[in-house]
Amino acid sequence: MLTEETQDVKEILVGVTNRLNGGSSALSKETVYLNLSGNYTLTTLELGEEFDQRNLVYGQSSNYQDTIFAKMNEEGVFVRVYSPTSRLLFETEPKDIPFKKSAQLLIEPIKMDNKEGIRGISPIYSRVTQKLIGYVQVNNQMVNYHYMSEKILWAILGIGILALIFSAVLGYLLAVNFLKPIKKITNTMNDIREDTQSTSRIELDEGNDELTHLSTVFNDMLDRMQKYIEQQKDFVEDVSHELRTPVAIMEGHLKLLNRWGKNDPEVLDESLQASLQEIERMKSLVQEMLDLSRAEQVEIHYKNERTTIKPLILQTINNFKLIYPDFVFNLDDDIRDEMYVSIYRNHLEQILVIILDNAVKYSSKRKEIHVSIAADNQNVDIAIQDFGEGMTQEDTEKIFNRFYRVDKARSRYKGGNGLGLAIARELLTGYKGTVYVESVLDHGSIFRIKLPIHRNEVKNS
């Protein structure tokens, strides 16, 4: 736009000069007013000479003449004509504007009413005598330029304010969205601080960002802590419950001896034997409870262990053959010798011993145990079948609970505390394995164990 304003000033200077340079004497008011009345038509050749661009086409000279007069009358444009002696001869609008002489066409920036403007000065030489006959001066306040500049400035300012408001709203929404999961975490922490038994958890949103991952890990940690707390609580309750009976028995015998039994050798011997038997039961119970407590933490202490399964099963079966020579143990295996499963060797042996020992205890008629091993791409399956007493459907659903016994009197007589299968299940759960039982009353049971193949085995298969 600044270039257009400058070009307008130049066109006015050239147009006025060509209208006034036809005389031979110095300009006068009459001559100037006469020639600027609009009766003179500027030719295309004359315009081209003034602009030093002869190849331009300007169209009809009358149109150009109308354009010059229109530009002279635009707002903020002041045209003045001076005599060679700097006397003002003509002005389009009265205004206090200083005059400056110039020997050639000159266009320069100036200040007008504290704003940027343009001043153009051109000497007028007679086409007849080639002598200086006057000056023309054009001052342009660039009203359109300043108007458009202000509009653009206000537009930029408005857009900037809108952008600022939009950014603030967007930032607020993002902050609220970002702080929302943090607030959930804080609320959950406060709930747990107020109630250590609280089951409050962080509500997870859909997403895969760091806060979602943090919330997931935090929930997992709380679940694990809750699990350990419940296990400890159950441990104390179970031990208290199971120790009550042997302690009561011992207390009864000791009171009996304290009253009068100590003087009777037969009563004394019976009480001592009963007390020693209950002490052995308590020792066994405490050891099994410790084993159960350790079984609940295998995923922490033994998570990277592996065991070759076939040699261990063969060794365990051979051990039982030596201990129970009157039993028949059959093995059906369909796996290679060097197959590894993800479990600590001693724990797998403990599981096998628990299940085989139960199979032997409850097989009083048909003394035969079948063991089979098979594998797929992910897991090894072990089945241990006996042909003993079996159990009902209700018992199969509860057999892995702590201290559960199908026949409490018979189990106590055979030395069972009802913890063996609970230990086996906890161990297998810690290694991402499973165990369940299929049983028919008076026909026997099948315990099925599933263990994951070690990951290196899976990759190589």
β-strand percent reads 15-25%
Order of helices and strands: HHHHEEEEEHHHHEHEEHEEHHHEEH
What does the average pLDDT come to? 82
Helix content: 40-55%
What is the CATH topology descriptor of the largest domain?
Heat Shock Protein 90
The general outline is rod-shaped
- Can you list the strand order of the major beta sheet? 2-1-5-4-3
| Tally of alpha and pi helices | 14
Q: Gyration radius, to the nearest Å?
A: 55 Å
Query: What's the structural domain tally?
Result: 4
What is the total tally of β strands?
12
Largest sheet: 5 strands, antiparallel
Which structural class best describes the helix and strand composition? alpha+beta
What's the CATH architecture name of the largest domain?
A: 2-Layer Sandwich
Unreliable residue stretches = 39-62
CATH H-level superfamily title of the largest domain: Histidine kinase-like ATPase, C-terminal domain
CATH C-level of the largest domain: Alpha Beta
Distance between the termini: 78 Å
Give the topology.
Layout: H1 2-20, H2 29-35, H3 44-51, H4 61-72, E1 77-82, E2 88-91, E3 106-112, E4 115-125, E5 132-140, H5 143-194, H6 210-259, H7 265-295, H8 298-301, E6 307-308, H9 309-323, E7 328-333, E8 340-341, H10 345-361, E9 368-375, E10 379-386, H11 393-398, H12 408-413, H13 420-430, E11 434-440, E12 444-452, H14 455-460
Parallel strand pairs: 7-9
Antiparallel strand pairs: 1-2, 1-5, 3-4, 4-5, 6-8, 9-10, 10-12, 11-12
Helix pairs in contact: 1-4, 6-7, 7-13, 9-10, 10-13
